[in-house]
Each structure stands twice: as C-alpha cells, then as structure tokens.
Amino acid sequence: MQHLNHTEQRVLTAIDEAGLVETLARLVSIPSLDGTAAENEAQEVVADLLAAQGMTVDRWEIDLPALYAHPVCSWEVPRERGLGVVGILGADRGGRSLILNGHVDFVPAGDPRYWRSDPWQATVIDGRVYGRGALDMKGGLCCAIFAARAI
Question: In principle, which of 23, 55, 103, 112 could form an S-S bond with 50, CB 3.0–4.6 Å?
Fold first, then answer.
C-alpha cells in the first residue's frame, strides 16, 4: 500500500483482521431488525466486543416513555426495550476523547431472490463481507472499534 504513510501502515498491520471479520459475521447472523429483541441482543454483543477490546463499557436501559414524549423524538417503529451501549478507551487517562457512533438495527432484508447469498450469514467474496447489516452499519462499527484499539 504505497499511498499510506508509515504510521498508517503500522495501524493497519496492528488490526486483527481475522478477528474483525469473525466479529462482523457474528453480528450479521443476528437479525437485529428495528424494534426487535434481536436489536438488544446485538447491542449486548457490541458491549462484549468493547470490553474484549479493553474498553470500559457503560450499558443502560433507555427510558423509552420519556424519549417518546420528547417533542423532537422520531422513531420508525415502536420498541418495548432499548439498550444503550458506550465503550470508553483510556477513560483513566484524562485529556481528549474520541467518540465512535454507530447502530446495529436495520430494515428488513427484502425479497431473498435478490440476494446472492443468505442475508443472515456473512459471506466473504473477493475480500468483501456480504450480509444484512454488513454495510449499514455493523461493518463500520466493527472497523471503528478494531481501529480504535489498534491505535
């Protein structure tokens, strides 16, 4: 990768690519559709991932009635339970922080005839991971977490 400087190359080398793909495959296998119990299951997996990467994890139940009552609240689907998860790397160091934001919910996969493979199983084709949520946004979330740990 000639277009990367030395530091960027070192960071990429430090990323556990196999672990990242394995974690993404685990998340893709959870059909975390908007408002379902699987959405919270995926949040728990993310919380465990954050802890495994050495981060301090804060989990909390979202006060949905208070949130729904707020005048600017907008939800596509109702939820019976909402789980918030935050990971903090280097919380004991003080100073500046980096916030990584993502989500694990998504809309239905649609007509399965339009999928080349099972949308609930991660499939690697030509070095790319395919499956429902791999792009929006479980893949981005996994990449951000693994990159943060690498640096």
Answer: 55
Phi, psi for residue 4 in degrees, rounded to 5: -95, 145
Q: What is the mean pLDDT of residues 72-86?
A: 89
Q: So where are the chain's domains?
A: 16-150
Mean of all residue pLDDT scores within the chain: 91
**What Rg value do the Cα atoms of the chain yield, rounded?**
17
Q: How many CB atoms lie within 10 A of CB 60?
A: 10
Give me the phi and psi of 122, to 5 degrees please.
-65, 135
CATH 3.40.630.10 is held by the domain 16-150? yes
**What Cα–Cα distance (Å) separates residue 68 from each residue in 75, 77, 84, 106?**
8, 11, 15, 20
Other beta carbons within 10 angstroms of residue 9's beta carbon come to 12
Banded model confidence at residue 31, pLDDT cuts 50, 70, 90: very high
> For 6-35, what is the mean pLDDT?
93
